[in-house]
Amino acid sequence: MSELLHRFAERAGDYRADVRLCSQAELPGVLSGLLGKEVVLPQGVPPEWVAGLATIVDDGLSPADLDRPQLSVLTGCAVAIAQTGTLVLDGGPGQGRRLLTLVPDHHVCVVFAHQIVADVPDMFTALPDPTRPLTMISGPSATSDIELNRVEGVHGPRRLDIVCVIDK
């Protein structure tokens, strides 16, 4: 496993994301085991990722449509940052609009090893279009009250699963 992939998985895990590693061939099976009964997809998710699963392609679903307990959303990402364990989405194909990753209770994101960069400056270099609006995700949604009691899922997904695909 590459050093960047190892560091990314470790840092994302520090933020309480569940990180799994797999090969391209194993990806559909891993996703099938993670996704719930209802799966929302943005435009551009490769069909082979979800072969055999019941899916709903986002065509402008409302926040109420996306705020259901059994709902999962599956996306890809533009880049991932090893130093911070951060996913970076720019709304490109397979990533969808921000609402998809901020409302559902469960987000599953696929990251390919070649998408992982060392740090934030490298992220800007790796982005296809650095002027696009970015959503940066470091673990499940979390906040703390004045006594530093951590609460997850208040402002976004309570569960974040990251599937890292090891490049050949």
Automatic annotation (TrEMBL):
Pfam families: LUD_dom. Residues 74-164 form the LUD domain. InterPro entries: FTHF_cligase-like_sf, LUD_dom, NagB/RpiA_transferase-like. Gene3D superfamilies: NagB/RpiA/CoA transferase-like. This is LUD domain-containing protein. It comes from Rhizocola hellebori. The lineage of its organism: Bacteria, Bacillati, Actinomycetota, Actinomycetes, Micromonosporales.
